[in-house]
Amino acid sequence: MKYREMSKNYIFRELECQMTKEEVAELCFKTVRTVTGWDEGKPIPPECKRLMRMAKGRELSISEDWIQFKMLYDSMELPTGQVVRPQQILAGIALLGIQSELEIKTSTHLLGLARAIANIKK
């Protein structure tokens, strides 16, 4: 597809979601021909856009609690911009469970992050 022929939908599918027509068609239970129509400018149904974002980790859930959380390969980007790995999340949960001295410091840090997230929502 030539640059001057690229629609916003094509850019969304190809560059933002990094999905092929075939992948989108399978994900959304549509035909490749339908996806081609979207690339040419026909509107993409909102539920299909959401599925595409969710499939590529651009959006985690429809719940507002997860707004601005993003998956980056094997890590999660928090609304604060901090990137955490699964091991860090599990370690934090474990520390909260054992009620250690470190847990108090961790809780304080987590509360600070929660406040920052709440301020972002405003």
Describe this protein's structure.
7% of the residues are buried. The model has no long low-confidence stretch (mean pLDDT 82). The N and C termini lie far apart (41 Å). The chain folds into two domains: 1-59, no CATH class; 63-122, no CATH class. The protein has helices spanning 8-16, 21-28, 32-39, 46-55, 86-98, 101-121; strands at residues 70-72, 75-77, 83-84. The protein is built from six helices and three strands, in the order ααααβββαα. A three-stranded antiparallel sheet has the order 1-2-3. By secondary structure, it is mainly α. Helices cover 57% and strands 7% of the residues.
SSE inventory with pairings:
Layout: H1 8-16, H2 21-28, H3 32-39, H4 46-55, E1 70-72, E2 75-77, E3 83-84, H5 86-98, H6 101-121
Antiparallel strand pairs: 1-2, 2-3
Helix pairs in contact: 2-3, 5-6
Structural key phrases:
57% helix; 122 residues; 2 domains; single chain
Helix/strand structural class: mainly alpha
- Low-pLDDT runs of 5+ residues are none
- Helical content band: 55-70%
- Describe the global form: elongated
Strand residue percentage: 5-15%
Amino-to-carboxy terminus distance: 41 Å
Radius of gyration over alpha carbons?
19 Å
The biggest beta sheet is recorded as:
3 strands, antiparallel
Tally of individual helices: 6
Domain unit count: 2
Strand order in space, largest sheet: 1-2-3
List the helices and strands in order. HHHHEEEHH
Mean pLDDT value: 82
